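Note on ligand handling. Small-molecule inputs were canonicalized before submission; formal charges were left as drawn, and no protonation-state enumeration was performed. Where a ligand contained multiple stereocentres, the stereochemistry in the source SMILES was retained. For pyridoxal-5'-phosphate, this procedure yielded the string shown in the input block below.
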Amino acid sequence: MTGKTTFQNLAVAGAAPAFSEPLHVGRPNIGNRARLMERIEAVIDSRWYSNNGPRVQEFEQEAARLLGVKHFIAMCNGTIALEIAIRALGFKGEVIVPSFTFIATPHSLQWQEITPVFCDIDPLTHNIDPVAAEKLITPRTTGIIGVHVWGRPCNITALEDLARRRNLGLLFDASHAFGCSSGGKMIGSFGQAEVFSFHATKFLNTFEGGAVATSDDDLAHRIRLMKNFGFAGYDNVIYPGTNGKMTEMSAVMGITGLESIGDFIAVNRRNYHQYAAELAGLPGIDINVFDESEKCNFQYLTLEVDESRAGICRDDIVSVLQAENILARRYFYPGCHNMEPYKSFFPNAHLILPETTKIAARILVLPTGTAVGEAGVSTICQIIRTAVANAPAVRNSLSAR
Ligand SMILES: *Cc1c(COP(=O)(O)O)cnc(C)c1O
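Structure output:
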């Protein structure tokens, strides 16, 4: 692919794909394999696989220390962690959430019959707009869930101020933001609690996993009960609960990953700067910007495509990349408000979500992380540059398919 500059070399023009194997977004980060295998063997030999085992406790302590929080409660996935945090916080009625998020954020409310009220985003950060959020408050509103999309922190100060003034709960979905900071403080320490996901695609993974971080002792106590059926000891259930427990296997993946987060960040950061340099100057193609004075995991490599300046739309670029086996994704298209059941519940939601609508039509997510090398990034950038330079030919070729 090196030296490729013409439309004729693109797969949409009939050439072979640039990558023989599909290159996915969100390939898992893996820490030191030898140490991981040793730990897995040790877990198998221990015959202690679940129920708050020693490795889960170790993972929780290491993560709590890293984040500077009192409590870090590991769970089986981020969605259950969200559901339990929402319940433990006593949210009911209506809760304000962005529509520009993964569907699990509103689903974790709807699942317990709380109405998600979709709020627009700030087009610069892609995060919930606190001014728009305030306008959505009704007598039924009990809380706000901010999502740190792409690991970029929400406007935490404004949301904390709003929650305080209007007496609302404040939870953060920090699924994207493990290892990131805001104002020098680690994400995990804001609001009443913050929820992480350790799904395989996330920056730190435990195969499947999640956690709630909080420094509120009472809240942490309720959450610990809820994730373990309400058990307060053998044969003693004192609370309604569910099964949110993390396994020992997941915990050793997490412990091993935690030892390598510096390496994961270094690779992501290197890729990010290479993408930024090689795509610089392309009109209408803007790479996301991170505040590099903060800690940042650089896990999401997103481009915003402004068709009026680029001469090519986001979806055509995605089609060109996919034809080359680069499986770029359109996160969070078309927005949660355009998915069921919300689409039927709120058919006019788009009227108050103009920025969400605009951003959802413009964003594409590119592969990064340890699975994409320097040559890979170069090839992807050349394909994008070629597609932009040959936009009319690309359009013709795609519509003929
Ligand atoms: C991944 C993700 C979740 C869900 O986490 P799971 O661990 O997959 O259940 C929730 N919210 C956001 C924003 C996510 O990206």
